[in-house]
Amino acid sequence: MAKMIKLVSGDGAEFEVEEEVAFQSKIIKDIVADADDVIPLPTVSSKVLIQVIEYCRKHAAVNSFPLSPSSSAAAAASSSSSISYSKPVSDPALRAWDNEFVKLNNSSLFDIVIAANYLDIEELVDLVLETVADRIKGKQAQEIRRQFNIENDFTPEEEEALRRENSWAFQNN
Amino acid sequence: MTYFPDEVVEHIFDFLSSHRDRNNVSTVCKAWYLVEQLSRLRVFVGNCYAVRPERVMARFPGMKCLTVKGKPHFADFNLVPHDWGGDALPWIETAARCCPGLEELRLKRMVVSDESLELLARAFPNFKSLVLISCEGFSTDGLAEIATHCRGLRELDLQENEVEDHGRQWLSCFPDSCTSLVSLNFACLKGEVNTSALERLVARCQNLRCLKLNRAISIESLIKILARAPNLVELGTGSFTADHRTEAYQNLLNAFYKCNSIRNLSGFWDAAPRYLQAIYSICSSLTVLNLSYAPAIQVNDLIKMIRHCFKLQKLWVLDSIGDKGLAAVACACKELQELRVFPSDVYGTGIAAVTEEGLVAISSGCPKLNSLLYFCHQMTNAALITVAKNCPHFTRFRLCILDPVKPDPISNEPLDEGFGAIVKSCKDLKRLSLSGLLTDKVFLYIGMYASRLEMLSIAFAGESDKGMVYVLNGCKNLKKLEIRDSPFGDAALLENVGKYETMRSLWMSSCDVTQGGCKALAAKMPRLNVEVINEREESDEMVENPSDMHRVEKMYVYRTLTGPRDDAPDFVWTF
User: Fold this and answer.
1) How many CB pairs under 8 A join A and B?
2) Which of A27, A72, A93, B558 is most buried by its number of CB atoms within 10 A?
């Protein structure tokens, strides 16, 4: 019988997850080591926690039941105490699942990355941030601002001077 | 407004590798600017005179890898005087003060003194990689400093540099403790090296993957080296000829047989045909083959070799390959992406080497071709039109017909239509070099169709100012324009002055631009450096007070954040 950990979201919802799923989070792993099985996560809403758990469950399952020689090699390469494997995710099926998983709007992605950052789930942080980076690539500043709802606090002169410096000094076409 | 902590933003930026993307994010808001400037590790400076080194390092204190480019491209054709500028020392000095964590330095067309190399060797404890391309000003003494003091050096890559030979000892300066080399390229060195030191160095650097030997290395040494470095991926073979009448062939064959990883091959300076057969076993894995320094290889041997090279992606050869050899390439090398055909006999008449037929054969046999440099004696419009149809994916197309202003030999027409077909068909064309007889019409086509063009080289082309104006008004992504011996004058120069602030540089030599025109440009556009290079050995009177009507021999214009440079020699006037 797998050991269960109880996670409690900021809005009071409780989630029971298998230990190996929860241990994708280094923080949780450390807390449980201090002999506490009920873990309050006041900064994580239940909506986000559900998504994070879904990710952890998928990645824990892949680790325990390798679907391909490459992922089992990766799992074998990592030590038993910390379930993390070298990037990039080598299993194409898992990568495809990850790509589907991150088909979320920016706001949801940020909520997830804040939570994953707090919970110290390295692969999830990387996955989300790489997705965000892909949405930035090739875009001009104005479009990036619009997409991420960021205010432009440069004066027009400052912005013009900066663009000029970037373009005249540091651009590689 | 979305808020993310700085470390999250920095982590996002880790995934942005292009300079363009990093530049864009730095202008989003002040917080992003700060995160970006502190986290940019790789810095690219396309023109060493566009920005001061102090500013670069103040903005990017965490810089680990710096690339700087100096002289304009036409320096490769000896059009830029040696002491024009492009000194690397200020960059190295400033980095030594401000960015001692520097790990990699890449310099192109710069003047690098031994003093600079000595400073470089001593000032950066984590220094790992030095790449010098088309540089000059240093000797093997400077290399000795690098070898001696750069602990943990991974890469020393010398490409096409002018290096003064002060002896063979520099290679022995790598200490016995040096085991970190991954890449060593000294192919451009003229002098001898200490071969036993080289063999020992290779033996202890187990991670060595790229080794490019110079001409002084014989086959006997090569064999010993290969025995110690069977995991090489890139190899420059050295002279590929034997010192003595030893039967090196069998040993060579065995040596290559063990080298399963070689993908990139060059060298072969004095290659004797019988030794070439030793490499057939690795030909089928090759992706890059550079035979441009191998005039000794005869066509038939070349064809025999090429037949095995079915994975080849990049091929550099001499024009002695002939149309027949190119036909063989077209048959065998279906993965070919880049072809460079260099002239072997620039001044003599000799045998007609490659013609338009060879190019057409390649274009029809190699569907993935996207980059071309082709020196030839003639070209026809029909051939270019066919090539344009066969290969719409060219990003780089440089055609150099050795006889300037040569028309299509069949129709006697200019080559406007041929090049027009190229720019019309190749929508991703970024770089173009023109040659042959060309009127203003070709420039009309270029202005109309070459919307992605970034670099254009013009020689002995056009009829009037209109030609240059078509290009300046049309090519919206143009970054570098270099023109020689073409009838473009002040009217063209001054037609669209704002354009030059959108470009990195403009070079014009032996055109019709006058001193007055240059002054006018400088007056209108204070943020450009308008440099006039006067090397003439004329009477003092002429040089001191040339009138504004005086035609300018060489002019180099570039946008800059720093104003006129303070290291210009006295024959360079900045207006």
Assistant:
1) 109
2) B558
Residue carrying structure tokens 């017909």: B401
**Partner-chain contact B23 A171, CB within 8 Å:** yes
Is the backbone peptide bond immediately before B367 cis, with ω within 30 degrees of 0?
no
Distance between CA atoms of residues B235 and B211, nearest Å: 5
Give chain A positions within 8 Å (CB) of B454: 173
Contact list, A132 vs chain B (CB under 8 Å): 12
Q: What is the pTM of this model?
A: 0.91
Q: Rg of chain B's alpha carbons, rounded to an integer? A: 25
pLDDT at A117: 87
Looking at residue B82, what DSSP letter applies? Answer: G
Q: How far is B4 from chain A (nearest CA, A)?
A: 8
Chain centre to alpha carbon of residue A33 = 23
Q: Distances from the Cα of B265 to the Cαs of B112, B292, B311, B312, B329, in angstroms?
A: 28, 11, 13, 11, 16
Tell me the one-letter amino acid at B376: C
Phi (first) and psi of residue B432, to 5 degrees = -140, 135
CB distance B16–A170 less than 8 Å?
A: no
d(CA B73, CA B455): 11
ipTM over 0.90: yes
Residues of A near B (Cβ–Cβ under 8 Å) read: 106-107, 110, 113-114, 117, 125-126, 129-130, 132-134, 136-141, 144-145, 148-154, 159, 162-173
Q: Residue B123 is encoded by which pair of tokens?
A: 């000032």
pLDDT given for residue A89 in this prediction: 63
What distance in Å separates the CA atoms of residue B464 and residue B490, rounded to the nearest whole number?
11
Q: Rounded to whole angstroms, how far apart are CA atoms B506 and B464? A: 18
Phi then psi dihedrals of residue B541, to 5 deg: -60, -45
Cβ <8 Å between B29 and A152? yes
What are the residues whose beta carbons fall under 8 Å from the beta carbon of B94, sequence distance 6 or more? B53, B54, B56, B57
Residue B374 DSSP symbol: E
**DSSP structure class, residue B499:** G
Selected residue of A135, A151, A172 to mutate for chain B interface (largest B Cβ count, 10 A): A172
- Amino acid identity of residue B118, one-letter, is E
